[in-house]
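User: Some background: our group keeps a shared notebook of sequences we're curious about, and every so often someone picks one and asks for a predicted structure to add to the entry. Today it's my turn. The entry only has the sequence so far, pasted here. Could you supply the structure so I can complete it?
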Amino acid sequence: MKSNWNIGGLVNKLESWLKDQTWAQRLWALMPHKYLKRLDYYIMAKFLGTYIFAIALIISIAVVFDFNEKMDRFMEHDAPWSAIIFDYYKNFIPYFANLFSPLFVFIAVIFFTAKMAENSEIIAMFSTGMSFKRMLRPYMVSAAIISIVTFFLGAYIIPNGSVTRINFEDKYYKERKLNTARNIQMEVDTNVVAYIERYEDNSKMGYRFSLDKFDGKQLVSHMTARTIVYDTAHAYHWSARDYMIRELGGDREIIKRGNRIDTLIRLTPDDLILMQNQQEMMTNPELSAYIDRQKARGLSNTKEFEIEYHKRIAMSFASFILTLIGASLSSRKMKGGMGLNLGIGLGLSFSYILFQTVSSTFSVNGAMPPVLAVWIPNILYAFIAFFLYRRAPK
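Assistant: Of course. Here's the predicted structure to add to the notebook entry:
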């Protein structure tokens, strides 16, 4: 009873405190003031402000160039302005901002740190006895904020917007979805293997269909059909036409024939037809479930989906690595100004993105595991960050 009374008292105190405080006061009270001082908040404001400004500037330019390139196709397909603005560009902006977030982090760190070094602000910090390691604290807190936001957007928010954006492109710019597939074979259930020679998505019809059921390694049932049609009104509902079923049991064989039979098969058209960049349209839970389901069916076309899943995590950690590289590079005052630092920083950031693209391509076309391909750039640039950190002014 005493424990319950104490908990109730704490809840009542918390409620009264929330009622007496404004939102700004509550947020300020929850900040870790023991570890962050006024100077830290100054650096964080510089970091995050420059980061947001860089995103706004570069994405504005990207939108202008993209619209200029695609305007003719939009007008040719009579795309309404409301769809162009709200279906396409409203989802285009967060997608590309999140995609190039490491580049924006690097540019922001290089720019404002070099500016502080040029104004002798960093020298003033060091003259008070502050170490370079201590100066990095607000940098890492800012990188953590960016990392959490970009991961949450990339894993849960942007995929839903990508569905609208890609469907818009498919309708008004360039069709991405394939309409046919050939020689499809997959395990649709435990010890149940389906085969379709040709599938056409427009009619939801498959040709030369077979379904084999096994008991261990022994075939117990073999079904064939000239065509099979998917019923879009019911999940996993297929209608087989001109079918034959062979039931194999010991020395006996039972054969059934007919013109049409309805059957349930754990297979949908989405499993047969893949859209280009379909992995970008899935949230992390959907990606994980899709990968597990396809592997259970014995399919090997999951590498692009695995790369996308691991890339979202690796890109979030890249914020810390590139922040450390940028701060270590630009914290020293140089005679030539920030131009050299900015050039080196841009070269490293673009090489990081290029290296990640190349390693992902090797994974898709080769035998490299997706998780290794995605994390190799982070591992390599972590060593570069450590080397530059050791050489940074102390």
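Suggested note for the entry: Confidence is low (pLDDT under 50) at residues 1-5. The two ends are 57 Å apart (CA to CA).
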